[in-house]
Design brief:
NagB/RpiA_transferase-like, Alpha-Beta Plaits, 6 helices, Ribose5P_isomerase_type_A, binds ribose-5-phosphate, six-stranded mixed β-sheet, Ribose-5-phosphate isomerase A, globular, Rossmann fold, ribose-5-phosphate isomerase activity, EC 5.3.1.6, 2 domains, 13 strands
């Protein structure tokens, strides 16, 4: 997972960018490379406006002088550029390793297209080796966790509350004030079925399965960049 490959994917994503676009700006180390490069292009005169998917991306884009807006002001976006934790068949994604899945999904859903940028280590034949982030409301957490555990118990798997790094063992808090459960499925043979089950689980705000969102993936390898389509 080299920084050079992330940067190469981020650079190649500019083939999809046109002046005047309304952009969704993703979150994570790969998306940060794109925002960094976008800052340089904006400084050189590119006119775009962005909606950030996290407080982190908001801070980065603001520091770089990228013009920002909100979905309240600009509810329809042209393109979102974002990273992913896994890219599976048909460009089904797992996202949320960095905790930004809810805003990322809202922004992606508001965009006409979504370009995923990644190094080749993110492409998989089947989703699920990366634990699936599930965003839950803190109220009634024990009850929600029981429902989630029942869902994953059929598969003999675990669902763990994500904690903040450090000794305090406090729950990790998302930008929306929610908690995250990481569910280790190992294999998700039917992402659509799992997404439907999670959508129907009371207490779950959103999950990291992004199905039908990505319109292209720019995957960087040592020997070049490949563009995948669904
Ligand atoms: O919540 C975080 C996002 O979904 C990220 O896009 C994802 O975790 C990939 O991050 P990275 O580019 O750092 O591997």
């Amino acid at each position: 997972m080299s920084v050079a490959l992330k940067r190469r994917a981020a650079e190649a994503a500019f083939a999809f960018i046109e002046p005047g676009m309304r952009l969704g700006l993703g979150t994570g180390s790969t998306a940060a490379e794109f925002v960094d490069l976008l800052g340089a292009r904006v400084a050189a005169g590119l006119d775009v406006v962005g909606v950030p998917t996290s407080a982190r991306t908001f801070a980065q884009a603001t520091a770089l002088g990228i013009r920002l807006t909100t979905l309240e002001e600009t509810p329809d976006l042209d393109l979102t550029v974002d990273g992913a934790d896994e890219i599976g068949p048909n460009l089904a994604l797992i996202k949320g390793g960095g905790g930004a899945l809810l805003r990322e999904k809202i922004v992606a859903a508001s965009s006409a297209g979504m370009v995923v940028i990644a190094d080749a280590s993110k492409t998989v034949a089947e989703l699920g080796a990366f634990p699936l982030p599930i965003e839950v409301v803190p109220f009634g957490f024990a009850s929600t966790l029981r429902r989630l555990e029942r869902l994953v118990a059929e598969l003999g798997l675990t669902a763990d509350l994500r904690l903040r790094p450090g000794p305090a063992s406090d729950p990790y808090l998302t930008d929306g004030g929610h908690w995250i459960v990481d569910a280790s499925f190992r294999r998700i043979p039917d992402p659509s079925r799992l997404a439907t089950a999670l959508d129907a689980t009371v207490g779950v705000v959103e999950h990291g399965l992004f199905l039908g969102f990505a319109t292209a993936a720019v995957v960087a390898r040592d020997d070049g960049v490949e563009v995948l389509r669904p």
